Amino acid sequence: MIGSGHRRLPVIQQNEIAECGLACLAMVAAWHGHDVDLAGLRRRFPVSTRGATLSRLMSVAAALGFDTRPLRAEVEDLRQLQLPCILHWDLNHFVVLARMGRDTVEIHDPARGAVTMSLAEFGRHFTGIALELAPAPDFTPIRARERLPLRRLFGQVRGLGRAATQVLLLALALEAFTLVLPLALQWVIDLVLVSGDLQLLTLIGIGFLTVVVFQAAIAVMRGWVVAELGASLSAQWVGNLFGHLLRLPLDYFEKRSVGGVLSRFISVQSIQQTLTGSFIEALLDGLTVGLVLILLAFYSLPLTLLVLAAFALYALLRWATYRRLQALKEAQLVHVGRQQGQMIESISGMQTIKLAGREAERRAKMTNATIEVANREAAINRITATFAALSKLIFGVQRILVIWIGAGMVLAGSFTAGMLVVFVAYAELFATRAGSLVDKLIEFRLLGMHGERIADIALATAEPHVHGGYGGPPPKPRIELDGVGYRYAEDEPWILRDCSLVIEAGENVAITGPSGCGKTTLAKVLLGLLPPTAGRVRIDGIDIHHLGLARYRTLFGAVMQDDVLFAGSIADNITFFDPDATPARIERAAQAACIHEDIVTMPMGYETLVGDMGASLSGGQRQRVLLARALYREPAILLLDEATSHLDVARERAINAAIASLPITRIVIAHRPETIRSADRVIALRDGRPVQADEPRQT
Length: 699
What we know:
Blueprint: E1 2-4, E2 7-9, H1 20-31, H2 38-44, H3 54-63, E3 66-72, E4 85-89, E5 93-100, E6 104-109, E7 113-118, H4 119-125, E8 126-135, H5 150-154, H6 160-180, H7 182-195, H8 198-246, H9 250-254, H10 258-299, H11 301-320, H12 322-348, H13 350-356, H14 359-412, H15 417-458, E9 479-486, E10 496-503, E11 508-512, H16 519-526, E12 534-539, E13 542-543, H17 544-547, H18 549-553, E14 556-559, H19 570-575, H20 583-592, H21 596-600, H22 619-632, E15 637-641, H23 649-660, E16 665-669, H24 673-677, E17 681-686, E18 689-692
Parallel strand pairs: 11-16, 11-17, 14-15, 15-16
Antiparallel strand pairs: 1-2, 3-8, 4-5, 4-8, 5-6, 6-7, 9-10, 9-12, 12-13, 17-18
Helix pairs in contact: 6-8, 6-10, 7-8, 7-15, 8-10, 10-11, 10-12, 10-15, 11-14, 11-15, 12-14, 12-15, 14-15, 20-22
């Protein structure tokens, strides 16, 4: 962060692929006093996957109480602007200009974090467009940050209270033994060595040997309980979070990268490890520090003040670097997500990479992403190593001074040798636990960063209208669109506009139109995957939201352009892992999809593994397995979006004939004449509106 007085310019990382502009506004808004998070702004001002234009940013800024001034500027002119301001970057991105030095520039990039670069490098990325923001005369700071309680982040967890209580009690027992053990030294020095009493020495030795045995046994028990607690929490938290992830609308996943979503689960592990390990330890460290401080003060108040001064110095230095450490941790998580995304993308597109001969370029990208992660890791490790050395230095100096001054007190007769040994032991214990407590408090502060990342999943609104209030008889497969419109954001053009049509039960309808006219969007609206921006979708006269999307989708069998197969056998994929599947039903679906003959010639038949996302099958075979999956559901409505594009004409004709014989409603999105001719009626999409098309029919 950079700051001026009480104001600070935070680094806010974008979560969605194209919300860089909104993240920049969130940073500038925080600088001027708004206390809002990016998730709250996203709910108020959603951005599509295409991003936001400069005019859109200006309208959002106005809604937040800012006057805006867009302008063209050269690099040298930016020094005259009111900072922070927003810059257009690389023709497809927005960043915040935080500070301009003589030879360097600091920007806050929603995709990379805080970056300092030379003026020459800055000039290669800056497009010459800047947006200056200033509070309007009626500007009022907003306080609308959503709290992030653990229960909302992770859901309900069973068995936490009992296990945590066990861990705490066992740990308290360990701490009690730790405090008692130094007394053995004092008793041996002050009682045994002075009197030469061997029996007392034996008694003290046996007693403290017993204490050590009990201490080891309790440590083992505590380790087992902590291990079980950690495993249970991890399983339940990941399960709860993934369960919520599955309930989110399709729009959520279209706006995020796979690597970015996966990196959120790394944060789950970090929080779990901190709470099951560091949290209990921090409680005990705090308790031990308090008790040891009382004991130290009982022995010598001046020496205790010396111990406290060393602790205060370490805590002050640790706190001074907190924001730097936080920024590095945040940047590291972002780059880990980007690294994972690069790897997933490269593995998924390996065939394309090899055909294009771009292995070297992909390796370079992966290397750069890995170096970015490694650089942050090295910077974090440097800070950790520095404070490990500072801890040894500060508390080492404290140890020398305590021994020096304490020895003088022994010589003066105000301290015994045993008291000095015990005081040094307790001072060591205080230094260790107090330093650890400071480190853990910093660690807890950093949990807020992980919590905000997890909140991108946990606090995202689940898909609405999944369960409706309809309690009547099953609806007939008659679909009606009434004035349906769809666009991805308020400033985006309409993809669909005033779509009104009726598809009767049992009808076979083909939807045609040029690429990009909205056919797939219409299919997703029909399936209830995208909520219409305007208008309604009805099934047998019932609003699908009233019926409930879960029940509505049970009426459909669908094959979309980007559908995938999952790891498992062909039979698993046809049934979608239905535990009650029967061979007869599987074969029936495969024959209707014209894939049965291919399957029986394979060595393992229906148990043949499809590989990763169907890699072991040809494109045509994958499409027919997907079609068999849709038919296996025995749907009332079948929707196919270019589902036979990889097939030859003969197979396409056979599939069309098999589907035409089914007593169901059929909706086919297609370009190929063979499929279009098989339809009873053809609807063309023009300018986002359906019109009746005059297409030849199959006779």
